[in-house]
Amino acid sequence: MFSKILIANRGEIALRIIRACRELGIGTVVVYSEADKGSYYLELADEAICIGPAKPALSYLNIPAIISAAEVADVEAIHPGYGFLAENAHFAEICRDCGIVFIGPRPESMKMLGDKVAARKLAKEAHVPVVPGSEGQIKDENEAIKLANKIGYPVIVKAAAGGGGRGMRVAHNDITLRNAMATASAEAEAAFKDGTIYLEKYIVEPRHVEVQVMADKAGNTLHFFERDCSIQRRHQKLIEESPCPVLDEHTREELCKAALKVIKEAKYENAATVEFLLDKNKNFYFIEVNTRIQVEHPVTEMVTGRDLIKMQLTVAGGQNINLKQRDITHTGVAIECRINAEDPARNFAPNPGKIERFILPGGMGVRVDTHIFQGATVTPYYDSMIAKLIVHRPTRDEAITTMKRALREFKIEPIKTTIPACEKILSHSMYLQNKVDTSFIEQHLTL
Ligand code: ADP
After folding, report:
1. Number of Cβ within a 10 Å radius of residue 360
2. Long-range contacts of range 278-283, CB-CB < 8 Å, 24 or more positions apart?
3. Of residues 137, 143, 257, the one with CA closest to residue 185
4. With a 6 A CB cut-off, is 12 part of the ligand 1 pocket?
């Protein structure tokens, strides 16, 4: 096991990793930007090192600065959290070259699965159903139009390097497809420096269901059941729950098995999430693998009682997972609401500012993962998520009741947050009756 690691991230996930390390007796070094100076979580780490100005390119994405900090502090490993460098294979390679363990997959598997076109191919080879679409990258418009007419509109143009809902465009006919290809490719080029695009059938009104997986160096690969992340705005998740409320036992088993097949085919190590779309007829289709811990991992932790961050650390440290698949069970229902500093009435535009009043909810079945405190300032430089509110109760009805009660208690003033939007969703008859799909917010919610 490691004696000291560096956390190359910020905010709630940095704090989450500090907590796991503290309980495992691992020393922590956290890096921070000038904008995060004064954050309370920095005091909870054993050491904190400033690595540059607010701009991510100059701090949290600044590989030389992070590696220098790791060398100065003499750590054995780096946990990248999520976002920033978490899925950067080049960074993982540099860590390896410097003799520092990257807490995550090998760069080779990250590279392969990070390319969605290559990941689709791998899933197909593992006999896992993928969304009908192009064999590989799509280069010219005529080829795209021919394929779209074959599989039938609507189709979705996606970026091979895509993430965070960027580089995706839906097209309903030949004309909009031409536009979709140009805009998706340009957006991907700007965001990921890779304009490669591919085509998929656009599944109408799907649910987003994903499987949590963990694999050790010896090839033990286990799943931790699924999360339903259908409540999204602009293809970004807002509310997640486990288990998926519309899955029957047989489909759940098939889905989890399919996820394991993909991960085994990739000879993967550490935590991964295999994402699928579930259509109205309960057919599921692979869409992508996220090669890191996800924001929504706590819902899985609550229903399975397993600490996924600790497991990431022990697996990266060379320990085998001492569990069999049958040892992993799930009880009750967990729901997570992402509390973002955003104005839902202005299409979820970021709403940074100083927090004058901050009162946390509590009580039975409530967990809050946040680095925020009264008097903290939410800066405009980073992701707008400031807290995760998670509940775990025996049934879905009870979980919803507890979540509504906790959202009511949670006071974050004067900035605008997603709390009122989450309250509306949790009271909506379609959500209560499990009739939602990924377009629910855009189609049915008046904010
Ligand atoms: P990203 O990596 O940017 O998050 P994903 O491939 O995971 O992109 O897709 C994000 C979301 O976009 C999905 O949860 C779903 O809502 C929507 N989506 C992606 N592919 C399709 C598709 N083929 N049909 C319908 N919706 C899709």
Report:
1. 17
2. 278/206, 278/207, 278/208, 278/209, 278/244, 278/246, 278/247, 279/203, 279/204, 279/205, 279/206, 280/204, 280/205, 282/246, 282/247, 282/248, 282/251, 283/129
3. 137
4. no
Residue 88 amino acid letter: N
Mutate to test the pocket of ligand 1, among 120, 134, 168, 289 (most ligand atoms within 8 A of CB): 168
How far apart (Å, rounded) are the C-alpha atoms in residues 42 and 351? 24
CATH, domain range 207-444: 3.30.470.20
* Cβ of 287 below 6 Å from ligand 1: yes
pLDDT for the residue 447 = 81
CA distance 116 to 161: 6
Residue with tokens 């955003």: 342
> If one looks up domain 4-103 in CATH, what number appears?
3.40.50.20
pLDDT in tens, 209-265: 999 999 999 999 999 999 999 999 988 999 999 999 999 999 999 999 999 999 999
For the chain, which residues make up each domain, given as ranges?
4-103, 132-201, 207-444
Percent of the chain with pLDDT over 90: 97
Q: Does the CB atom of residue 133 touch ligand 1 within 6 A?
A: no
Left if phi > 0, otherwise alpha if psi is -120 to 50, otherwise beta: which for 219?
left
CA–CA distance, 384 with 367 (Å, rounded to integer): 20
Q: For the whole model, what pTM was predicted?
A: 0.96
Q: How many beta carbons lie within 10 A of that of residue 235, not counting itself?
A: 15
**Pair 199, 134: CB distance under 8 Å:** yes
Distance (angstroms) between ligand 1 centre and the Cα of 199 equals 12
Closest ligand 1 atom number to CA of residue 287? 6
Residue 291 in contact with ligand 1 by CB distance below 6 A? no
Does 35 score more than 90 pLDDT? yes
CA distances from 432 to 129, 356, 403, 440 (A): 30, 34, 13, 13
Q: Retrieve residue 234's tokens.
A: 């602009």
Probe target for ligand 1 pocket from 231, 235, 238, 438, with the most ligand atoms within 8 Å of CB: 235
Compute, in angstroms, the gap from residue 394 CA to the centroid of ligand 1: 30
- What integer is the mean pLDDT of 102-131? 96
- Segment 278-327, tens digit of pLDDT: 999 999 999 999 999 999 999 999 999 999 999 999 999 999 999 999 99
Nearest CA owner, ligand 1 atom 2: 163
* CATH tag, 132-201: 3.30.1490.20
The tally of CA atoms less than 13 A away on the side-chain side of residue 58 is 9
